[in-house]
Design goal:
The complex is a heterodimer of chains A (364) and B (398). Chain A is built from 10 helices and 9 strands. Chain A has 364 residues and is an alpha+beta fold. Chain A has 3 domains: 113 residues, Butyryl-Coa Dehydrogenase, subunit A, domain 1 (Orthogonal Bundle), CATH 1.10.540.10; 103 residues, Butyryl-CoA Dehydrogenase, subunit A, domain 2 (Beta Barrel); 127 residues, Up-down Bundle (Butyryl-CoA Dehydrogenase, subunit A, domain 3), CATH 1.20.140. In chain A, helix 3 packs antiparallel against helix 4, helix 4 runs antiparallel to helix 5 and helix 6 runs parallel beside helix 8. Chain B is globular and about 75 Å long. Chain B is built from 13 helices and 8 strands. Chain B folds into 3 domains: 77 residues, Acyl-CoA dehydrogenase/oxidase, N-terminal domain (Butyryl-Coa Dehydrogenase, subunit A, domain 1), CATH 1.10.540.10; 127 residues, Butyryl-CoA Dehydrogenase, subunit A, domain 2 (Beta Barrel); 151 residues, Butyryl-CoA Dehydrogenase, subunit A, domain 3, CATH 1.20.140.10. The mean pLDDT of chain B is 93. Classes of the chains: A alpha+beta (364), B alpha+beta (398). At the A-B interface, helix 6, helix 7 and helix 8 of A face helix 9, helix 10 and helix 13 of B.
């Protein structure tokens, strides 16, 4: 039966995350962006909420709750509203954990998930994006070749969050032309973390280039073992997560510029009392809500294990455009004040632009 | 729980509506577009029959919206001929007493086809409904109505078919502004109410759009919806005006449902044509690898979906008894604009086939446009949305 109301439990989680986002994340987001660093204490506090481990079964070290894409969408929207860099940092272990949880062999789940569910935050990550024009997740340059009792990986990755800190990395590579996941443990020969990247936005999040040079891993490190992984589903889970994050960023920009427009006087009246400004805000509000509902629908399909490529890719493209529109308008509404770093809207515009390039950098 | 699964009866209702639209509307769609003002009498009898069987019974909820989408996928003009309480009924439902609901709405479950129209717009007032000049003067236990109403959807049918009714908005005290604005139920056949003119329109030509004149039209005192009192003290919001606005909260998302029906007709047409050319729309492919055609179609689909979900949410909220003014205006603003663009893009994509009257696509483009105009233009709905998100009164944001 059609319903747009989150469960009581989901509402409780959202309230908790909202509180954290507004109290903790919003307090330090600017320094994180300027310094390129997120204090470990904030990450630890966030980790205590158990956002990732709550959806992992008890026998794998988690709290045994339900792993749901809808719940995930609700959570990541709030975190991204707080700050996108921090949200991606906090949720980074899920890039490794969720594919292993959903598609890993029993042995992989038992071996890797408990360490992620530790009380202390432990970085784990995944590497999908490649530094080249025309990047396509379905046609990766990074290759995995079966050689005797193991796989040999070769290629170049970029935008790998927390690659330098992570003990576990899920590397996506083309195996006979099909994208599959491969688990690489820290210290494996041929896995080299490069320089930290410098990007226009998400500056608080440490991302790295990674090289794979004849990197040899055991055969059993192929995600899902012989069966492999459902790469479409991984991509769809990522599209849904990124769409929800885009909603969070856009909502932040909308709320801030709305409040500003109510305060800022021009010609003796708040600028919000002019339709030129008010209609921009109305359109932002409409598109934010529309994108959220489309995200929920795609997430709902994922939770039902239905084919969701159409819904997920439609909403992702829509969200990419929407977040640019909303963050750009927020800067425009603040005018000159929007352009200076005293206000957060320029930061949201920079972060918003990234969504088109963030394939695989978030997961529900 | 957030859920998008349709109940089995909703699926059945959609299927029945879709079949009816395909079998009964589509074959005569072009005919009634070209023979504007010709009454599709047989079809109307058939609709009334189906309605009484439940197939075309249309309320103001999610289930109704799903059916309306299917019917308007068939033909939005013919959909607007489906007999029923309509907007007039919605007004009675929004602000009538229990007795009035029984007296005015009960009739729609029996007898022959009948319609309930709403007469709001006047030659000198469109979106500014508070500037209404039609007057209602109390005379003993009667009201005497005088004025001219234009753009009354299915006005002719409501005025001329026995037992139909028109809800007329009029002022009982011009000096009171909005507070003086009231709505009155005028039964068909009341002396002094007549159809003056039928509009010739861009689209939805099967639907009659009438000018109605009220010339010393007398109705019983108890036909007023809501209280007859004029509360001058409370200038900002008053019951009469609120009644009109409450009606919009329910009907705007219904227009959203109509809109997406027309939009989907165009979308289905284009997708089928493209498929017949052996072109597959590739979802999940990076954007830089998509063709311009794929991008266009995906954008149309996403906008259709956005409009649909906003529409369903607004109606769902109403069924949960949650205030939905903001959400219903959002849905209407989005849906009206989205399908205007979807259908225009569809005509563009199909080129000569899109522009030719051999296909229905050009008709859908013309039909779609009304959804961005009636029940509040896109701009009015943006204004309502803006006021709500800014928490501004109509004095603070004009």
């Amino acid at each position: 039966m059609i319903s747009f109301s989150p469960t009581e439990e989901q509402q409780m989680i959202v309230t908790m995350v909202k509180q954290f986002a507004s109290d903790e994340m919003r307090r330090i987001y600017r320094e994180c962006d300027e310094d390129g660093e997120i204090p470990g204490s904030v990450i630890d506090t966030a980790w205590q909420m158990g956002l990732v481990s709550s959806g992992i079964p008890e026998d794998c070290g988690g709290f045994g709750g339900e792993h749901s894409a809808i719940t995930g969408s609700l959570i990541v929207e709030e975190l991204a509203w707080g700050d996108l860099s921090m949200a991606m940092h906090i949720l980074c272990p899920s890039l490794f954990a969720y594919p292993v949880l959903e598609m890993g062999t029993d042995a992989q789940r038992k071996k890797y998930l408990p360490s992620i569910c530790d009380d202390k935050y432990k970085a784990a990550t995944s590497a999908l994006i490649e530094p080249r024009f025309g990047f396509d997740p379905y046609s990766l340059s990074t290759s995995a070749r079966l050689d005797g009792d193991g796989y040999v990986l070769n290629g170049q990755k970029c935008y790998v969050p927390l690659a330098a800190q992570a003990d576990l990395v899920l590397v996506y590579a083309g195996e006979n032309g099909r994208s599959q996941g491969f688990i690489i443990e820290k210290g494996t020969k041929g896995f080299e973390v490069g320089e930290r990247e410098e990007n226009m936005g998400i500056k608080g999040l440490a991302t790295y280039e990674v090289s794979l040079k004849n990197c040899r891993i055991p055969r059993e490190n192929r995600l899902g073992g012989q069966k492999g992984c459902d790469f479409d589903r991984i991509m769809n889970c990522s599209r849904v997560a990124l769409s929800a994050m885009a909603v969070g960023v856009a909502r932040a920009a909308f709320e801030y510029s709305r409040d500003y427009a109510r305060e800022r006087l021009a010609f003796g009246e708040p600028i919000a009392s002019r339709q030129a400004i008010a209609f921009m805000l109305a359109e932002m509000a409409i598109e934010i809500d529309a994108t959220r509902l489309m995200t929920w629908e795609a997430a709902w399909k994922l939770d039902r294990r239905e084919e969701a490529t159409k819904e997920a890719s439609l909403v992702k493209a829509y969200a990419d455009d929407m977040v640019m529109m909303a963050t750009d308008r927020a800067v425009q509404i603040l005018g000159g004040h929007g352009y200076v770093r005293e206000h957060p809207v320029e930061l949201w515009l920079r972060n918003g632009r990234g969504f088109v390039s963030f394939d695989g950098m978030a997961m529900v | 729980m957030i859920d998008f699964e349709l109940a089995p009866e909703q699926e059945e209702g959609m299927k029945a509506a879709h079949d009816f639209a395909r079998e009964r509307f589509r074959p005569v769609s072009r005919y009634y577009d070209e023979q504007e003002h010709e009454d599709p009498k047989e079809l109307i009898d058939r609709m009334w029959e189906e309605r009484n069987k439940g197939t075309l019974a249309l309320g103001l909820d999610v289930t109704a919206a799903l059916r309306i989408e299917e019917l308007c996928w068939g033909d939005a003009g013919l959909f607007l001929c489906v007999p029923g309480p309509g907007l007039g009924g919605a007004a009675v439902f929004a602000s009538g007493t229990k007795e009035q609901m029984e007296r005015f709405l009960g009739r729609f479950n029996e007898g022959g086809p009948k319609w309930g129209a709403m007469a709001m717009t006047e030659p000198a007032c469109g979106s500014d409904t508070s500037a209404i000049a039609t007057t209602a003067v109390r005379d003993g236990d009667e009201w005497v109505l005088n004025g001219e109403k234009i753009f009354v959807t299915w006005g002719k049918r409501a005025v001329e078919n026995p037992e139909s009714l028109v809800v007329v908005w009029a002022t009982v005290d011009k000096s009171a502004g909005r507070a003086g604005m009231k709505s009155f139920v005028v039964p068909a056949g009341t002396p002094g109410m007549r159809v003056e003119k039928l509009e010739k329109k861009l689209g939805i030509r099967a639907s009659d759009t009438a000018t109605i004149v009220l010339d010393n039209c007398r109705i019983p005192f108890e036909n007023i919806l809501g209280s007859p009192d004029v509360k001058k003290a409370d200038k900002s919001e008053t019951k009469g005006f609120k009644g009109a606005m409450a009606t919009f909260d329910a009907t705007r998302p219904i227009v959203g449902a109509m809109a997406i029906g027309v939009g989907r007709a165009a979308l289905d047409f284009v997708k089928e044509a493209v498929e017949n050319e052996g072109i597959k729309i590739r979802y999940g492919v990076p954007r830089h690898k998509l063709t311009a055609l794929e991008r266009d179609i995906m954008e149309m689909e996403a906008n259709y979906k956005a409009a649909k979900l906003l529409t369903l949410r607004a109606l769902w909220m109403m069924s949960q008894l949650q205030p939905n003014s903001l959400e219903s205006s959002m849905a209407k603003a989005k849906a009206g604009l989205a399908v205007t663009r979807i259908t225009q893009k569809a005509v563009e994509i199909m080129g000569p086939l899109g522009y030719s009257r051999k296909c229905l696509l050009e008709k859908w483009m013309r039909d779609a446009k009304i959804n961005d105009i009636f029940e509040g233009t896109g701009q009015i709905n943006m204004l309502v949305t803006a006021r709500r998100v800014l928490n501004y009164s109509r004095d603070q944001l004009k």
